[in-house]
Design a protein that fits this description.
3-stranded antiparallel beta sheet, 4-stranded antiparallel beta sheet, 26% helix
């Protein structure tokens, strides 16, 4: 205090001006810390809602070593997406009929996948890998949703398949699922119970020792639970497969997903030269279409 009293008037004036300026700065920053510049929010609240301002134009709090960032969303938060996977190469032998409908030779990965399941582990002279094609389709499921489907068939009918299934898809014909029999460990009964539409499976005709046309990739079963396989006993009885589909053995009844001569699925397969199992006399295989190849 004595030091201040002994100062010259000019020095005292300078100190008073600096003190007043410092007090003004303190007052301004105190006010700003309690009020938002724009909307009455505190600065900390404003920073939370505007992290890009707090971080700066070229900084983020994300690790970009394994990802790429996209522009901020409407809330101001930085969106982060994983780096997209490199798409698998397209087979140069792929034949595309329409977008989503194509067929191609079996890949090495697919050969390994089916061997020991739908294709014999020890191989077979009846059908080779080169005789088969992988078929990709789109179809309308029972919920009315577009769904991807995949089949393995004889290369001789692959073009028929993409054309038929394309027409069914355009007409919004409903097929519950179309997946490889490998998803059922090669068990045809399990596939039918799940109402799965399938084609190639190296197996005999049910109840016999004769190879099915499925073993050659020349037959397909469509919505099998609603279109069962029926055999007859000597005493006039019948056996319905798969179990549980007995209500659909009576073809005089009307019900969804029923294949008969007025059905679009039937008409398309017949137009392409297929035979329908529903026309057989010794048994009835309402799910089944097959084609004879010379």
């Amino acid at each position: 205090m004595k030091l201040f009293q002994n100062m010259s008037p000019q020095a005292k004036s300078t100190i008073l001006k600096m003190t007043g300026l410092l007090a003004l700065v303190i007052i301004i920053f105190t006010a700003l810390s309690k009020t938002s510049i724009f909307s009455g929010e505190t600065l900390s609240e404003y920073a939370e809602k505007n992290p890009e301002l707090a971080l700066g134009d070229n900084e983020t709090n994300t690790d970009i070593s394994d990802s790429t960032t996209t522009p901020t969303d409407e809330t101001g938060h930085i969106e982060e997406t994983l780096t997209p996977k490199t798409p698998e190469p397209v087979s140069p032998e792929r034949i595309t009929y329409k977008e989503g409908f194509y067929y191609e030779p079996l890949s090495e990965e697919l050969i390994a996948y089916i061997t020991g399941v739908s294709y014999p582990a020890e191989g077979t002279e009846e059908i080779s890998y080169e005789d088969l094609s992988y078929v990709h389709i789109l179809h309308m499921d029972f919920d009315g949703n577009t769904t991807e489907g995949e089949l393995i068939c004889n290369d001789a009918i692959a073009q028929d398949f993409v054309e038929i299934f394309y027409e069914l898809y355009v007409a919004e014909y409903q097929i519950e699922k179309v997946t490889l029999i490998e998803n059922y460990d090669g068990d045809d009964t399990a596939s039918m119970l799940d109402n799965n539409t399938s084609c190639f499976n190296f197996r005999p005709v049910e109840g016999t020792g004769n190879l099915s046309k499925h073993a050659y990739g020349l037959a397909i079963d469509i919505n099998p639970f609603y279109n069962p396989y029926i055999t007859y006993t000597d005493d006039g009885g019948q056996r319905v497969s798969p179990e549980g589909s007995e209500p659909y053995a009576d073809r005089s009844q009307s019900f969804p997903y029923k294949i008969d001569s007025s059905d679009l699925c039937y008409q398309l397969f017949i137009e392409h030269g297929f035979i329908w199992g529903g026309n057989w006399n010794s048994c009835k295989d309402y799910q089944h279409f097959q084609k004879v190849i010379d």
